[in-house]
Write a structure and sequence with these properties.
5 helices, mainly alpha, Ferritin, binds MU-OXO-diiron
Amino acid sequence: MINSKIQDSFNKQINAETYSAYLYLSMAAYFSSINLPGFANWMRCQAQEELIHAVKFFDFINERGGEVTLTAIDGPPTRWDSPLHAFEEAYKHEQKVTALINGLVDLAISERDHASSTFLQWFVNEQVEEEASTYDVVQRLKLAGDQGGGMFMIDRELAARTFVYPTTATQGA
Ligand code: FEO
């Protein structure tokens, strides 16, 4: 059985992960509007991954006999100054999510909830990847600067990302 402190914090994390999906979907719309379909594709895939993250918490609460409570999702920004600005914001957002996950790990440890600690390790590792992948695009955009050719190449690379729906909710996304 999950205790109420962990349950409430995990419910908040469902909101945070769903907000992440919303944020990245909004970025996908922005990239489509400025004719960068590869960037838009990357963000769409990212939004789908975030929903899987939310569902992992959803399933875990249920499996532990807890109660899922969904709350209102804030509206994300809808415009950014440039592709670089959007990816810098994505990177900052991932750093915030990492801090949230670390806070959950601290709570699980202080509550001596070993099942939750183990469950959260997947997210600890995932956040290393999430920060690295957004930071990588930030660095590439800085190198490309205002050069249209560089931007076009990055767009083509980001177009190659695909999202594969995991066969079970507990598999990696
Ligand atoms: Fe679910 Fe990008 O953190």
